[in-house]
Amino acid sequence: MENSNALNSDRLRLAIEQSPVAIALFDLQTRLVACSNSWRKDFGLGDRDLAGLSYKDLVSHTPKQWQDAYRRTLQGYTSSCEPHLLTLPDGTATWMQGKLAPWRDETDNLCGVIWTTEMLSEAEQADFGWGNVFKLSPDLHCIAGLDGYLKRLNPAWELVLGYSLEDLKSRPFVELVHPDDLERTLEAARTLAEGGVHETFENRYCCRDGSYRWLQWTAISLVEQQLIYAVARDITRRKHTEIALRESEAQLRKKANHLSQTLQELRQTQMQLMQTEKMSSLGQLIAGVAHEINNPVNFIYGNLVHAKEYTEDILGLLQLYQDCYSNPSPEIQDEADAIDLEFLVDDLPQLLSSMMVGANRIKDIVASLRNFSRMDEAEMTLVDLHEGIDSTLTILQNRIKAKPDRPAIAIVKEYSDLPKIECFVGQLNQVFMNIISNAVDALEERDRDRTYQEVEAHPSSIRICTAKHGDNAVSIRIIDNGLGIEETIRDRLFEPFFTTKPIGKGTGLGLSISYQIITDKHGGTLTCRSVEGEGTEFEIVIPINQIDN
Predict the structure, then answer these.
(1) 203 forms bridges with which residues in the sheet?
(2) DSSP state, 20?
(3) Domain that holds residue 20
(4) 156-205: pLDDT as tens digits
(5) Is residue 13 domain-shared with residue 147, that is, in the same domain?
């Protein structure tokens, strides 16, 4: 008969379930096939449905010797379950023994395991308990009185801790408990003394050589006898392994955090290098353009002075001719009328003056470009902060000036009389560029939702205020009247890679780099204050003299 036929035998199952003997039948996969009510009762399993549950699901609390015997029976051998004190699911404890036999079908094929169990009588328990289990068990068995002394001990105590059994009985058991574990141990003892049935805990016990061993305790209260029965297992190796694992995990976490931080720093450094390279390239481009413009402008500007002087001389001579020859020939008079000589004489000086103004304006722009382009200066220099701010505004003029769809952004300068500041001028100009361009971005975003007339009625503006700050510092406040910044975003403004701009519009490094330039490079502060709906203010405070900072 095949295994499936044997497993489905109703007659076999019925015979087992009605047997007065405590018997259970398991298949080769250790699943329960059938069991008697006596077997259910012995293991405290009640009336619940046990069909298909495994050996470990039902009796995981059985000793290792029984589990080894079960595995031997699965190989076709008959085995015995030596008497053992079991703690049942309801907390009660009972002494039990049993036998395990192979279950074979009609063709002698192994189908599973037949397991019979038997409760020990009180006499058998007394005879076996201390005569065999205590002597043979590698675990530490003991019976303790409520007075705190150990009454009976098995030889494992001497093997594990190194003390003689008599020495252990002569002192309160708590004397050997590690101070850090004493409260937990006393709490378990109090619970058992007050009638608690079962208690499991861990503590460290002092050995004779001064070292400590970790013990895992399972204790039950023998209420009628006013005693506590306990079994302790030496788990020192496991604990040391756990500690080593925790330390290893902590080291790994620390290394992982360090690697993560290093990666973050590398990413930030990479982006900073890219940003620096971009600004350096921009500076070189601006410097080149400024140089190329500067030469012809200087030529024009230098010659305009002479052109104005020559023109005045010629106009003076012309006036002298008119005074001396008040009646010119008809040909001269006709030509004078044709070229509108009177208008030319009046307009030519004004034309030259306008050209001088334009040339001066170009020279100012070139000076601003050259000032802004000082990105690669490695040394600190004394500079006029206002020149750096004005240079930045010149670079951004195309974004600030009026557009067909909106009026110009008003720039309000409230400059105080400041001394020259010792700083890395190129880097500081980069900070001004980042903050002012962000302000322009914020105003443009707000103005996209407003009509031309609304913007004209309530114009967008950027105020730039400078002032002394204490004895050795100056402050630069850049204030826009945009929509402001939410508090949740404001707290993260200076984080690397944090940006609210769409992909491709920003890297999230402008303000982070600005913060490092101000704080790390110049020993200053960069703060942001904002009220939603009212605008945003960035304040830069840097020392005047870096040596004294």
Answers:
(1) 215
(2) S
(3) 3-120
(4) 898 899 999 888 988 888 899 999 999 988 888 888 888 776 778 899 99
(5) no
